[in-house]
Structure formats: C-alpha cells, structure tokens
Amino acid sequence: MVPPLSSSSSRSPWDDDPALGWLAQQDWPTERKAAWVALRNTLRPGQREMADWTGGPLAVSAVPGAGKSTGMARAAALAIARFGLHSQRQLLLVTFTRSAAANLRAKVREALRSLGVAGGGFAVQTLHGLAFQIASRHRDRADLPETLTLAAPTRQHRLMTEVIDQWIDQNPDLYGALVAGVGFDGEEAERLRRQSVLRTEVLPDLVQSVVREAKSSGLTVADLQDLAADAGRSRPTAQTLDQTLDLADLEPVPSLGNLGLTVAAGLYGAYERVLRSRGLMDYDDMILGALAALQAEDVRHLWQGRIFAIFEDEAQDSSPLQNQLLEQLAAPPGSSLEVPFEALNLVRVGDPNQAINSTFTPADPIFFRRFCDRCRAIGRLALMDCSGRSSPRLMAVANHLLTWVNHIHTGPSTGDRPPFEPQTIRPVDPGDPQPDANPSPLGSGLRLEDFGTIQESIARLGKLAAALFERDPRTSAAVLVRTNDQGRWVAKNLADQWGDRLNLYELGARDRQTQVPSDLLALLQFIDRPHSPDRLKGALKILRDREQISPQDLDRLASRPEIFLYPGPLDEAPAIATDAQRLCRQWLDASLVLPPYSLLSYLAASLGYDANELATADKLIDLLSQRAAGSDRRDRLLPHLAEVVYQESFEPVEAEASDDSPATRVGQLTILTMHKAKGLDWDAVFIPFLQAAVLPGAPYVPNQRHFLGPHGLAETSRAQLRSHLHGDRDRTPLTDSAIAWDHANGLKLAEEYRLLYVALTRAKRFLWLATEQEGPFSWSDPDRTRSQDPSPAFMALTRAYPNDTLSKINGSPRIGYPVEGPTEP
Fold first, then answer.
1. 689-719: buried (b, 16+ CB within 10 Å) or exposed (e) per residue?
2. Is the dihedral of CA 33, 34, 37, 43 positive or negative?
3. What are the Cα distances from residue 584, in Å, to 161, 405, 536, 742?
4. CA-to-CA distance for 530 and 532, rounded, in angstroms?
5. With 90 as the cut, is the pLDDT of residue 478 above it?
6. Is the peptide bond preceding residue 702 cis, with omega within 30 degrees of 0?
7. Where do the DSSP E strands lie in 554-644?
8. Is-contact 557 571, C-beta < 8 A?
9. CA angle 663, 666, 669 (to 5 degrees)
10. Per-residue DSSP letter, 766
11. pLDDT at 659 over 50
C-alpha cells in the first residue's frame, strides 16, 4: 500500500519542490496529484531518479536488496501517469524470465491502481518474447523458417549429434588432429576413448560455449572463420601434436593451442545448416530475426512509434545482440539505424556485482558496465545503494569481501578491471517505508567456523538450525552450496541426523524430477542402439549421476560397446565396471520381454527414483500413451518422448504443490545452490564447504581431456572470442593459448567471488560460514577425501572478524593464516 500524502501546510508539495514543478501545471484533480507525490515519496535514492526521468538514457546501478523491481514498477507507473501513456503509445518493461515478467506486471498494476490510472499504458515482455513478437509479425523481413519451431540444443539433443557428425564428415583431417592430440601411441582402445570424449564432451562444449557466444554477439560463421584465421596458422608440431601422427597426410592446420576457434567456426556452420534443414530456429534467431525486420524503415518506425521508452531490469545479464535490439526500439519515432546515445529513451537497471551467469551463458556484465560508464560521462548514472534487507553488520561483511577481492584480484587476467564495481551497500535512511528494514541481527549476526571434516560441519549446522527454529518457528533459513551434488549430500545427512527436528526442503530435488524424461529417453536410445558408443555413454552417465554406479572412466567403457556388454574369455573388464555392465544387460534383456510402457516403469525403478520421481515417470507414461494412441511399438514411442524432452516443458509431480512450498517458507530449512538463491533472502543463511578447491576453485582440465593439452579447448577459445568482442586483443593476444587460458580463469575467478557475494547478501539477520580441513576429491564421490585448504575469502573474513571466528580442529588450528589485502571491515 502507498502511504497517504501528509502536509502540515496549506501549500502543496509541488508548489515548493523544483522537481515537481511540472505537476503544478497539470490539469489533474488534487487527489491525483497527491497520490502521485505520495507514491514518489516511497522511493529511495536511485529509485527516485527513475521516477523523475523525462527522457534520454539512464543507468541505475543497484546493490543487493535495494528494491530494483519494486522501484522500477513504481517509477514506471509514475511515468505512465505523467506522460499520459496508453495502449498505442506504451512504456515497455523488459526482463529475462517469464516469472520475473509476471511479478513486474503485477507490481506496475498495483502502483497504477494507487494513482487511479488505467493499465493500458505499459507492456512487460521478456527479451526473447519481444523479439519473437517482432520477428513473427514481420516474417517476410525476418528471414525465419516457415514453422517457427524453437530448438534449444543441449549436449544430449539429437541435433547436437547431427551437427557433430556433419562436422566430422566434412573435416576428417582436423578431427584426426584432435584425436591424435598429444601422447598418442596408435593403440586402438585409446583412439576409441578419445573419439568418445571428443564426440560427447569437447565438441558439444564448443557448440554450447563458443558457437553460442559468437551467435549471441552477432558474429556470423564467416566472422568466426576470420577470427580463427587471425589467430595464426601453423602446421602441427611435436609441441602440439604427437609426432606419431602422419603429418604428410594432413593439410596445414592451426596449432593445438588455437585449434578451438577453427573447430568452432566449422561447428557453427554445421549448426546453422542443420537448423535450416530441419526448419528450426534457436533463441538467438529470434533476436536476429527481429533485428533483420527492423532494418526495414517502415517496420522500424512502426515499433518506435508504439514504444515511448524502455525500462530494462537485470541489465547485467544482457548480450550484445539484446543491447542492439533495445537501442533500436528505444530510439525516438522515425529514427534511422544510427542514433546518438543521448537520444535513446532507455533506462537500464542492474547490479554488475551480481553477474553470475557469464561463464556458462552469453551474458556478459561488461556491456552494462560500459553503459554505466557512458551514462556517468553525461551525468546520467544513478546509484541505488541503500538496502533494507540485511542488518548493517552483515552488509559490512559483504562490503569487506568486495573490497578485498578488488584489492587482490585486479590485473591482466581480469582485463585490468576489478571483479566488482566499487559500490558500497548502505542501510536505508530513517523513516524508510520498508517494514523492518535493516533488522537487528540474531546474536552477533555472524559466525565463522573451521572444522576437521564435512560431517562435523553439517552436524554443527543442523544443531544451530534446530536451535533457531525452536527459538522462533517463524524463522526462515537456507543452506547455500556451490553444486547440486553438495546439496544432495547435505540434504541426506541432515535428514539422517536431524530429520525429526528440521523441516527440510531440497530445491535440487525438483530439478532432478524435471530430468526424468531426459533420463528415460537416454536409456531408451541406448536400448534402441546398444552398440553406439555415444548412446552407451549417455546411459552410463545417467547411472553415474544417479549414483547407481561408482565414478569411473565412462569413455573407456563406452569406446567398445560389444566388449563391454558381452566380453569374451580373453577380455578383462575392470571390477569397478561390474554394476554398470549388469544394469545395461538387464535393460537389454527386459526390452525383449516387456512392452514399452512397462519397460519405462522398469527403467525408472532401476535408477533408484524416489516416490515423487516415480510418480513423475507414471505421469510421463500416461502422456506418451495418449500421444502414441496406445501403440506398443517402441519405435513409435521414441519420437514422442524426444518431443517432450526437446520441445516441451514437462512439469514434474511433487508431494506438495510447488506454490505451497516456496524456497523462502518460514519454519523450513531450504537447501539450494548459490545460483538458485539469487533474488531470494532468509533470516539465517548457512554456507558450508568454503574450501579453496570449491570456491573459487582452480584451473582444471579433466583427466580424460589431457590428450588435448594443458589448456581447456572451449575455455581458451571462448576467452579469445571475448577478448575480440571486448576490443582488447592487444592486451590478450589471440595467438597465445596460455594467456587466453589465464584470462579465462581470471574471468571465472571473478565470477566465483561474485557468486559468493550473492550468497552472503541473502542473509538478513544471521550468517554462518564454515570451512573444513578434509573434503572430497570430487563431490560425485564424497567418501573419498583429502586435505583441503580454506578458501582465501574465508581467511580474509576471519582476519576482519576474529571475534566471530571459532576453530573446531584439535591440534593446530588454521585460523589466522596471513592473507593479503585490507583487514578492517
């Protein structure tokens, strides 16, 4: 609710405030003017600059808990009323997800109701929804396929397999160079293993990262080919490719360090051909289609005439193509393709310090940071730095982390730009309308603890959480972890030890339920073609991820399916592979005697599904039975299941409806990843496993990929591409893969610390951080442990907050290790 306007004077606020001078000239009823001022008075600094916006570009850089969405919604309502917008001339609000769009739409309508204004003067769209609307309406100008069928290929998508097969057929020499790699002695089993790694991991990674990034940045296949050529060509040498490779049979190819861009360019071409041949498009095609349509003057002027201005939320997560689309639409009516920056009616709101998606999506915070720089230069940058979410002490913890990271990790590997924007979170001003703003802490509000083992750490966590809920059942709390594997382990251990005293909700369990269709599709595809190495590896990966088999080298097992499934007297299978071999043969045997729908139920049970997952499988079977008209032929079932996996959103079955069990429900300890926690908050937040190997982690090339050299192919190629997109190729030479690898890891490190910053700023009243002296080699096998160093960030905080630090390690506590950087919070 918007508080009523109060005044002890007979003069109206708009008579004395220069910022409201325009209001005095409006022919509005006094009650409406008062409502406008009352709504504006609910806004904080940064939010108010949006409300007072009258045109041109404006950047709003916000901090966690500053109320970005609420501020944007109220500022939008004020603008709609001020400028008399209507259905033919609208304010367009843009965000990234459908749920965020629905939330923003509801907030704008609520604010408009408080002003007594009709709701036709605005529209809320996701970026891709906006692009699709433009492109589909002007299909003749957008160069889109006739069917407008959307595809979002994953590693396991059939289109990915087709792309890779096509590239291999057209580039046998280049593929041979990759297979040879380094250290190849010609042994056939090793050749098959390397082929499996390339087909199922390395090449899909290049498509998902480099090709996707290039397309999202507006680069064509020819552009990427030119970029690869610029990286410098050379014949393979003993330093890059094994000397046993017959070089005389090969055309000159790039050195292994620069091979990724060349391979990615070829994959990009194959990817585009496959999409076109099947009449499909991806999300980037939507935006490219919209941009193509806007090249036509009549189309461009039509949309510019309808859109009064654009307000964009979560701007730190946008890509170059998305920026280009928004700038085309935010230009004044009748504009050409080239518009001065100062003429754009574009308000962009974001937090560059919460950019946590750039290492696995094309989102890149540098473009919002540059927008902020350009706005700063013309006096159009606003800071939304007041937050009412957390107690001031917890704000100081987050601010200290930011200062420490910028002090330690600014350099060439981060593009000479600090990982964080140096903006400090401040408490709200007295009299702020947010209820219970900056709440008092629970106890001291902060606890840092050092344990011997992860079991001791979680036992302590459970004890503290149980005490919190006993003290106040209305408390909300969460455990934030880095990976889903960690979340699964925490949920199991807390349930075993504290299940009778804690109401646990593991958010990752729902994610696993949504994977039921893709799990069953992978197993059916294996049964359909059991001698395919790719299909066998896909099935084995499901078993490993579902913890039905021990972690092992899947590529070696899948390289020779016949020998793995039915070994001869002289074939020795590793003992660790016995369970995998048994399960695969059981599936094949079952497929000979069970009808398809019974086979699906059998497969679901063999994966160890819980009750909700089995119910989800039953729901899926019912759907498939309807689609296939009850047909008992497996070959008719597979296409329908593939359609569900690749082209539809399939809702899982839960014990309770999702609306009744949100992640922030009081009296509940929610377990989720740090990424999933963005946008949420809790009274108490627990963050275990702050070990150096977990966060920020270390540069890592999986053992099975070592034959490609010491640097990750996709990572170095993507770093080279980003260097080009950022315009800093002189600082990071494309021809030097070692520098590109260092640059890639610098960007990854910066994002890992931003992720920790997001996690810290979820806590309102209590924050518990823990590190452990021992931890797993890999969280896929948590029982195999080794000694672990604490995260440097954890050590920095112990130095800043020694009175809040406890060590549970007997003998030689590790607390107090020197860490460079500022010590005072």
1. bbbbbbbbeeeeeeebbebbbebbbbbbbbb
2. negative
3. 22, 48, 9, 41
4. 6
5. yes
6. no
7. none
8. no
9. 60
10. E
11. no
